Each structure stands twice: as structure tokens, then as C-alpha cells.
Amino acid sequence: MSVALFVPCYIDQLYPDVAIATLELLERLGVDVVYPSGQTCCGQPMANTGCNDETAPVARRLVELFAPYDSIVCPSGSCTAMVRGHYAQYFEPDDETFQHVRDNTFELCEFLHDKLHVQQLDVHFPHRVSLHQSCHGLRELRLGQSSESMTPRENKVRKILELVHDIQWVEPQRPDDCCGFGGTFAVNEADVSAEMGRARITDHVSAGSEVLASADMSCLMHLQGLIRREKRPIRVMHVAQILVGRPL
């Protein structure tokens, strides 16, 4: 299996350790990982603001770049959901190259759960952890159970994290509420976005969490900004960092 690592642009620029942790994790599990040079943004910010003409060449570039690989792994539910759920409008219905990339692009925990069937990890993280489940991960990729859905679903992110030794789980009261980020929503509706984020942080802090974990660094970026400015007693970490045993 040839596996290409797709690193979202904001992770590349702001949180490179998340990409490094993802690479380390996959290599520890015996995966031969390639990082295709020249990759750029998936186009989600432009698409979210209705700039379809500007998104199209970005989408086509990504598909061209990743087409040679059996699987594409991305440490972001939102960027994975963009490729899988929103790229079709930029390609012909019978475009087999696009179909290959769409059908073989996976969020990191989804890949570990569904493709590698990981059953154990030799890593310890002795801290109280709560899980923020991103909207894209739950409602587009179906990585877990959302409260508005009657269809039972296994929580793939939680199941992979439960392989970590000594992790101590605490549960927020509203485990699948939106954090308020939503990309351009945080710009267009800044006050609403910030209040939604504060509500999520308060829920996790009240549960006694030391570490607010998520498979989406975009959500954590939004929450981290509020935590730092308001000096809340909690840290954020991407699941990849926990899965390789990064210290708190």
C-alpha cells in the first residue's frame, strides 16, 4: 500500500508538529508514507465563501497530485470531508481519477480504525482527557454518534485513543456541540463564534479535563485562542500528538 500524507495548509503553517506526529505514528505502525511536495490548500475556505471559480483549480491540483497513491491520509476531518463530500462539482461525473482520490482519502483515526485495524499502541498519556468531536468528523465523515441521529455509530476517534495506556477519560455534558469555529463563520459572526467556543471550554473544564483533544486542529485553533486570552485551566492537543506520546 502506498500512502500519501495530506497536510492541511493551516497545520503546515501554524501547527507543524501535528503533521510530524501523524508521520511518526504511521511509520511506527509500519506504513510506508510519502509526502507529495507541492500540495496546497484543499480549497475549503474559498468554497465556504462561494468562490467556486477560485476553488476549482485548487481541487484539480490536489486530485492530480494525490492520484498515484493507494490511500491518502489527512489529520483533519474538515479537509477530508471537503475532498470526499464537496469536490464532485469540480469534476466530470465519470472522472475516474477524481473518484479514486475521493474514495481513498481518509481522516487519520478513520484510517487507523478502518484500514489498519489498529488494536494496540505502546504509548502512555497519564492525564485527564476529554474529546471534542468536530462537526465535519461526526456529521460528514460519520466518525461517531451525533445526538440528532438515530443511527448507532462507533466512535472511531475515541476507540483509537482508548488504546493509549493510562489515559483518564472525563465526559463533557454536551459531547457533540459545535465549537463555533466553522472557518469563515468565525470571521463573519465573531461574537456568536466566540460565545459558542466559551461554552465548549466551560463544559470541558467543568468536567475536570486537563487536555481537550480533537481530530480537528481547526476546532482546537479556535478554542486555544479563547483559552489563552481568557487564561482557562486546560490545554488542547490533536489526537496524533497524544497517540505518539507527546508530553503535556
From TrEMBL:
Domain Cysteine-rich: from-to ranges: 3-83, 129-224
Signal peptide: none
UniProt cross-references to InterPro entries, sorted A to Z: Cys_rich_dom (IPR004017)
Molecular function as annotated in GO: oxidoreductase activity
Cellular component, GO, one term: cytosol
Coiled-coil regions listed in the entry: none
Pfam families: CCG
Name of the protein: Lactate utilization protein A
Species of the source: Stieleria varia
